[in-house]
Structure formats: structure tokens, C-alpha cells
Amino acid sequence: MAKYTATIDEDTRQRILALPGRVHFSAFMRKALTVFVEELEKNPDLGPENFIITCTPRKDPSDRKGR
Q1: Do the Cβ atoms of 39 and 51 come closer than 8 Å?
Q2: If DSSP states are collapsed to H, E and C, what string results for 1-64?
Q3: How confident is the model at residue 14 (pLDDT cuts 50, 70, 90)?
Q4: Residue 9 has what pLDDT?
Q5: Using CA atoms, how far apart are residues 27 and 33, in angstroms rounded to an integer?
Q6: What's the rounded mean pLDDT across residues 38-64?
Q7: Cβ contacts of residue 25 below 8 Å, gap of 6+?
Q8: CA-CA distance, 51 to 38, in Å (whole number)?
Q9: What values do phi and psi take at 41, rounded to 5?
Q10: Sign of the Cα pseudo-torsion (43, 47, 48, 53, in order)
């Protein structure tokens, strides 16, 4: 598997390092990149300005009604 890198500024790097230990940054990035790649596969003409990262509540499967 190929590894890809992108440069980030020092301020962003320090902010990532300052996140609480319970925040698993790599898991967030993995999910974001998966969604990003899926959208680019659908429409390769998209650019960075077409993407907005938002936070939405997770769908809790325990809220489902029983049969």
C-alpha cells in the first residue's frame, strides 16, 4: 500500500499534537479521506473548494424500534 503525504503548517501540527489523548486523529482522517475519495470517484472535476467538513451526530442503532 502506498503512503501519501501532504505538508501542513507548523501551527496545524501543534494543534493536532495538543488534542486530548482520547481523540484518535488518524481515525478521523481515515473516515474523512474515505468520504473524500468516494466523492472524487463520482465526480473527478471537484476541487478543494467543493468540500466542507461538518460534524453530525452518529446514528445510534440502539434507537431502532424492535419488530
Answers
A1: yes
A2: CCCCCCCCCHHHHHHHHCCCCCCCHHHHHHHHHHHHHHHHHHCCCCCHHHCCCCCCCCCCHHHC
A3: very high
A4: 94
A5: 10
A6: 84
A7: 16, 19
A8: 12
A9: -65, -35
A10: negative
